[in-house]
Each structure stands twice: as structure tokens, then as C-alpha cells.
Design goal:
Length: about 160
């Protein structure tokens, strides 16, 4: 009988410890209450406090990104692109049109606020891009002609 009691105690206390009774608020409830408190604080914060809070959040993000490896960066960007694709795949035609209108308005506002120097820089970049695109088309056509030539020569031989 003593052996049996010892075995019972061994199993109960060593292999399967009984969890202690939790006092106060458990993790889920505590985090929920903390989120509610944060939301309530945000409702009454001034514009200056809000600006300071958002600036701090942005700074933390920049610090985190500055320390990440190239692999982590690529993974983060890939995840962002995936989420964007999923979001766009689920949007309705109306939502898509609304998003495109907003993007166009922002572009117009940005261009309207820009200086002549910024405008010239933007136009110069557009011209350079067009030149590169034309060169790529010409190179592609040349590549196609060369491939066709070698294919024809191989067939003739």
C-alpha cells in the first residue's frame, strides 16, 4: 500500500503537475481590457498627442526595418504583396474604381504641389523610361530575328 501511494504521488506531482489556481484576470481578459483602455485614451487625446504617438510608432517601424536582414525584408515585402493581391482579388468593381479614383486624385495633388524642379525631374525620368522601353523592344526584335536565323540555318543543315 505504501508503494501504491508513493507511485500515485510520483505520477501526480512529477509527470503531470496540477496547474496552480490563477488569481486575478487571465491573459485574454487582461489584454482585452488593455485594448479597451488604449481605445478610450485615443478618443480623448489631443491632435498633438496623436501626432506624437503616430510618430513614435513610425520611428519604431523604421528602426525595426533598419535592423532586418535582406531575407527578412524580402519575406516582409512578399507578404505585403500577397495581402494586396488577396485584397484586390476580393474587391468589387465599384471598390476598385473608387480606389483608382483616390490614387489618381493623390497623384494630381502631389503634382500640383510640386516645384518646377520636381516636375522637370519627373518628366526626365519618364523620358528615360520610354527610351529604355524602346531599346528593350528593339533588342527583343533583334533577339527574335537572331533566333529565327539560327533556327532556319539549323533546319537547312
Amino acid at each position: 500500500m505504501i508503494f501504491g501511494s508513493y507511485y500515485f504521488c510520483f505520477v501526480q506531482f512529477s509527470l503531470f503537475p496540477v496547474p496552480k489556481r490563477k488569481r486575478g484576470i487571465t491573459g485574454d481578459a487582461a489584454s482585452r481590457r488593455e485594448a479597451i483602455r488604449k481605445r478610450e485614451r485615443r478618443v480623448v487625446e489631443t491632435e498633438e498627442e496623436r501626432s506624437r504617438r503616430l510618430s513614435t510608432i513610425a520611428q519604431h517601424g523604421q528602426d525595426r526595418r533598419a535592423e532586418e536582414t535582406e531575407e527578412q525584408r524580402n519575406s516582409r515585402l512578399s507578404d505585403m504583396a500577397q495581402r494586396g493581391q488577396e485584397r484586390r482579388a476580393e474587391e468589387t468593381e465599384e471598390q476598385r474604381n473608387s480606389r483608382l479614383v483616390i490614387m489618381a486624385q493623390r497623384g494630381q495633388e502631389r503634382r500640383a504641389e510640386g516645384t518646377n524642379e520636381q516636375r522637370n525631374s519627373r518628366l526626365s525620368a519618364m523620358l528615360q523610361h520610354a527610351r529604355e522601353r524602346r531599346l528593350n523592344v528593339i533588342e527583343g526584335q533583334n533577339h527574335h530575328q537572331i533566333q529565327t536565323f539560327y533556327t532556319a540555318r539549323t533546319v537547312l543543315n
